[in-house]
From TrEMBL:
The lineage of its organism: Bacteria, Bacillati, Bacillota, Tissierellia, Tissierellales. PROSITE patterns: SIGMA54_INTERACT_1, SIGMA54_INTERACT_3, SIGMA54_INTERACT_4. SMART domains: AAA. It comes from the Bacteria. One of its GO terms (molecular function) is ATP binding. This is AAA family ATPase.
Length: 580
């Protein structure tokens, strides 16, 4: 609650007092709640500022009773009994009115007659004067309320301006004619304006394209043109009509990239000849701009090879944009790659979207699992590679591209070409520099290096105390054929570190069963007798289907023998005695 202080609007009150005095032919005075005269006309004009607390008995009375009072006999009225000027009072008539804000009296206004003429004027038109005086006190309280409201608004504005000027995000406030009412430092810097930009007119337009969380806008002011990304908020006000919140498009693209990028920046590890040759190859081709096609089984490190090429290239400081063509639903893949403009197709975000090709501009795009690309998109990709331009869906603006393309697949593209599932022309476009990521089983030395790498990684991660790995464990790892390649090895080591006991040793007990069971698939495995093989398969089938008479029929069928033969062999190998 304010302590309303009429002195703050004393000048305006004085103007009212002068006007009223002229119209009504009487003198006017206004005192504040402390009984200080803050406005006065005629005789009272010189006495503005005078403290009347020792004589303003009538005023004091009005303040206490909150009632208007008419005094027809100043000096003789009982309220004047204690007034020091009682005997030489110059007033002939007085109408004293409280000035209210809600039910609080914040001051008093007096209409005063100083001669008989004004006295009879007041007396004869009393009702009219009373109405008039009430109106005037209402005006004064409105002036007071406005004053505080404006003060409050100004202080809000001041606080807001301070906050906005510290924001990293650029903010421009426009009036209804798109003229700058307010602008922060960040906006001035981003557009290249100096400090005198308030009052300049802005032109802006939007193609409706979405970049990250905002829309793209083209801004033009005082000869400066910029593409920015942000929002326009409409405010229903003449002076503060729109608020433009934005960031430069370069910054937005890089934030978007940081947000979506999951690039592993680890090095390619491995001392095998295969890996050494691979590293030489990468060093050799990194500086070139030609398209690379990496082929190889899943988990062999194709993406790692791609990032390594990028990091060794002149584009290392620009982006590496990876898109997994198999992981994105076919219906979304096209818009992910090419982007789209507002309303390009049903279901599209109403503001549009920037595509991966565009996002990769001046960097590298990695098209992973290219073999899973639908055939109609293969043609579009081919055109992008040939013409080096991209067009957002729903737009006809061609955006020039300066990108290096690296594609990867674990599919047999030659076979797919024969089956009509992969375009031959695209294959040749991609396969300018072929790189093969060889299966882990073909580079045994890497198994040792990678095992040690992953052991170190996961002991650290799990805070375990590692002492060493048993020889037979390493043998088991070397003898396994690793169909899931490096990814599978990494998962196996993670499992083993989990299983490792207090002694900190990786023993056979920690090795996943699959690896132990299958370790004899390749390498110098022992040769089983046919009888042993037969017995093993019968046990396996019985374990799977059961030992009941009914189950044995299925077992016999699955082994491709008659039920009688099955019974005979069970007996022969003494299988019934075994528990399974
Ligand atoms: N030589 C290596 N040195 C270190 N880590 C490796 C190596 N090769 C692969 N990795 C790791 O193995 C995992 C699988 O590699 P990556 O994702 O590159 O394989 P990929 O061939 O692209 O697999 P997919 O075909 O399934 O996409 C990754 O965590 C990667 O860092």
């Amino acid at each position: 609650m304010h302590k309303y202080d009429l002195r703050l609007v004393a000048d305006e009150i004085q103007n009212y007092a002068d006007a009223v005095s002229k119209i009504a032919n009487v003198e006017v005075e206004v005192v504040d709640r402390d009984l200080k005269r803050i406005a006065g006309t005629g005789y009272y004009k010189d006495k503005i500022g005078v403290d009347m607390s020792d004589k303003g008995y009538v005023n004091k009375h009005v303040m206490e009773t909150k009632e208007l009072i008419v005094i027809t006999n100043p000096g003789e009225n009982e309220l004047c009994a204690n007034c020091p000027d009682r005997d030489n009072c110059i007033e002939t008539f007085e109408v004293t009115t409280p000035i209210f804000i809600e039910d609080e009296v914040i001051g008093v206004l007096g209409l005063i007659g100083l001669d008989d003429m004004s006295r009879s004027l007041l007396e004869n038109n009393l009702e009219n004067y009373l109405d008039f005086v009430r109106q005037i006190t209402n005006f004064i309280s409105a002036v007071m309320v406005n004053y505080y409201q404006e003060e409050e608004n100004l202080s809000y504005m001041g606080t807001l301006k301070t906050i906005i000027s510290y924001l990293q995000e650029a903010v421009i406030v426009l009036d209804s004619n798109n003229v700058i009412s307010f602008i922060n430092k960040s906006a001035e810097n981003q557009i290249g304006l100096d400090e005198n930009s308030i009052g300049l007119k802005i032109n802006y337009s939007t193609p409706g394209d979405k970049v990250g969380s905002g829309s793209e806008y083209f801004i033009e002011v005082n000869g400066h043109r910029r593409y920015v990304v942000g929002e326009i908020v409409n405010v229903d006000n003449e002076k503060f009509n729109k608020i433009l919140l934005f960031e430069g498009i370069r910054k937005v693209k890089s934030e978007l990239y940081d947000m979506t990028s999951t690039i592993s920046r680890s090095d390619i590890i491995g001392s095998s000849e295969v890996t050494k040759n691979l590293l030489d190859r990468i060093a050799q081709i990194s500086k070139s701009n030609s398209t690379v096609l990496i082929t190889g089984e899943s988990g062999t490190g194709k993406e790692l090879i791609a990032t390594s090429i990028w990091q060794n290239s002149d584009r290392a400081n620009n982006r590496f944009i990876s898109i997994n063509c198999a992981a994105i639903p076919e219906t979304l893949l096209e818009s992910e790659l090419f982007g789209y403009t507002r309303g390009a197709f049903t279901g599209a975000d109403s503001r549009g979207k920037i595509g991966k090709f565009e996002l990769a501009n001046s960097g590298v795009i990695f098209l992973d699992e290219i073999g899973d690309m639908p055939i109609y998109l293969q043609s579009k990709i081919l055109r992008v590679l040939e013409n080096r331009v991209v067009t957002r869906l729903g737009s006809n603006k061609e955006i020039p591209l300066d990108i290096r393309v690296i594609a990867a697949t674990n599919k047999d593209l030659s076979k797919m070409i024969k089956e009509g599932r992969f375009r031959e022309d695209l294959y040749y476009r991609l396969n300018v520099i072929p790189i093969e990521a060889r299966p882990l089983r073909e580079r045994k030395a890497d198994i040792v290096d990678l095992t040690l790498l992953f052991v170190e990684r996961y002991t650290k991660l799990f805070g375990k105390n590692y002492k060493g790995i048993d020889d037979e464990v390493m043998d088991a790892l070397l003898n396994y054929n690793w169909p899931g390649n490096v990814r599978e090895l990494e998962n196996a080591i993670e499992f083993m570190i989990n299983m490792m006991g207090q002694d900190g040793r990786l023993t056979l007990d920690t090795v996943p069963r699959d690896i132990l069971v299958n370790k004899n698939i390749v390498g110098d495995e022992e040769i089983k007798t046919l009888c042993q093989l037969e017995k093993d398969e019968i046990i396996k089938a019985l374990s799977k289907y059961g030992k009941t008479t009914e189950a044995k029929k299925i077992v016999a069928e699955s082994l491709g023998i008659g039920v009688a033969t099955l019974y005979r062999k069970i007996k022969q190998y003494e299988i019934e005695e075994l528990s399974f």
